[in-house]
Write a structure and sequence with these properties.
By secondary structure, the protein is an alpha+beta fold. About 35% of the residues lie in helices and about 45% in strands. The protein has five helices and seven strands, in the order αβαββαββββαα.
């Protein structure tokens, strides 16, 4: 099955991000898009544009390496590994995840799934130590 143009464009937009990245979000997302991840629920293209602008301003770079994808009837699931390089503190964070999107000519809904603990909480001194220890005990 041939990859829909929108999915190819989606992957190109998110392949590499930096503070000066030009993100053609209006070409990718519908005006009334709903975006969800473990930390946010955002409705509307203006709010999503502001969200990505704030995120990009805080990082040195972010790269998404896309893996498996399943596309059928206006829906897609794309696995990815995100590598984020932060400025303060200077560190590299690698987190696997998946984006589930619904689309027509543009993305109308996106839900991202990833391990918030691996991305944020495990990096905090005391809480991080406790979470890493708990993972070792149960895993």
């Amino acid at each position: 099955m041939e990859e829909p143009q929108l999915i190819g464009r989606f992957k190109r937009v998110f392949a590499r991000l930096a503070p000066d990245s030009v993100m053609p979000l209006a070409e990718l997302y519908a005006d009334g898009v709903v975006f969800e991840d473990p930390l946010h629920q955002i409705t509307g293209l203006p709010a999503l544009t502001a969200y990505f602008s704030r995120l990009n301003a805080r990082i040195e770079s972010a790269e998404f390496a896309f893996g498996t994808q399943v596309v059928a009837d206006g829906e897609a699931a794309l696995t990815w590994t995100m590598t984020v390089r932060t400025r303060r503190p200077r560190q590299t964070i690698v987190v696997p995840g998946v984006s589930v999107i619904r689309f027509g000519d543009k993305v109308t809904h996106q839900r991202d799934y990833f391990d918030v603990g691996a991305m944020l909480y495990e990096r905090l001194p005391v809480l991080g130590w406790m979470l890493r220890r708990l993972k070792r005990l149960v895993g």
